[in-house]
Design a protein that fits this description.
mainly alpha; single chain; globular; about 425 residues
Amino acid sequence: MLWVELGIVLLSIFLGARLGGVAIGFAGGLGVMVLAMLGVQSGNIPWDVILIIMSVISAIAAMQMAGGMDYLVHLAERMMRRHPDKITLIAPLITYFMTLLAGTGHTAFSTLPVIAQVAKEQKIRPSRPLSVSVIASQIAITASPVSAAMVFFVSLMEPRGVSYLQVLAVCIASTLAAVILTSLIANHLGCELENDPVYQHRLANSEIAAPDRQQLEIEAGAQASVWIFVVAIVAVMAYATAVSPTVALITDPSMSRDQAIITLMLTAALAIILICKLDAEQIVTAATFRSGMSACICVMGVAWLGDTFVKSNLETIQHTASSLLNAYPWMLAMVLFFAAMLLYSQAATTKALLPAALALGVSPLTAVASFAAVSALFVLPTYPTLLAAVELDDTGSTRIGKAVFNHPFMIPGLLAITLAVSFGFAIGSVVL
């Protein structure tokens, strides 16, 4: 029955991936229903992860409606235009830190048009900064103090003696170092723009748009909204550290860490509405709100499906995988990589697989070092930010090949995750 159930899981994920978007969550629900019809006891819906995503996205949507995202894009554009020749290094760092701050990679949408334009103006192959920037926005989820994946992962690690700050220290250092090195290497990927035949063809046929340097109008409350959101994140980190068993400044907290994140983010959203004088009804129309709620459905469906399958076959999986993972710890990163490729969500992959991996006896060091591998959302070229980068590059350098997998995000993505996991083992052996 294990193979039958696995086939149902894979078919459901494949169907959802083919339909795209929120459909992967719908397909996860279908998979759970089919498994239940076969007599499989359904697993747990990841409500904690979903509620964290909803609350964080609500605060980000409020910040966006107040003009905070435009303000951040304005700062990012100034930084890139100050050193346009170094855009392949600067752009990924910007998307990395924006995701680190917000806990969602969808913040990259707002900076991708600027990256494509600055690269084109400098005659730099746009696929270089665009590809690494998309990868940086994905891998930064595993270093963000407020991402749903990180919060759930920390809840698994703290009972095993690894604190919130230790996990953040290893994950931020390893992923940031990986992004920087990948950016430097990406400068040598692909031919130069003027030698690209697709670019030459489009240039000859006037298919490349002229540079557009329109100035963004920054709303009056934009800066205030950003500062409110930053203060909320600092408060989250402070509270999570204070209630951590290893620090134990608060030994009997009235709220759990998850509850604190939810309340602080909802309060931040309210503060932005009041201080920036927003119409609360307009927040649900924000692009980040729609994408965040879509992510909730995706996480609910696929994580529920994954939990149902793993719990149904836990003994078999433990018997088969425990000796293999103990002998080859790096295999956990490969398992997480291929699961994330199908599940399309760092939070869903973390929720579905890491509890089972730790139950097999995987060491805390291996789990923390391998955590970055849940960011393999770039393998199938259908992820929203990846597709946006392709559409925004009218030079044609950021294109998906006929073989589907031969796209410009593959090498930077594989390289960034390999480096992050390697650095994770090195740094983790010192910090943990």
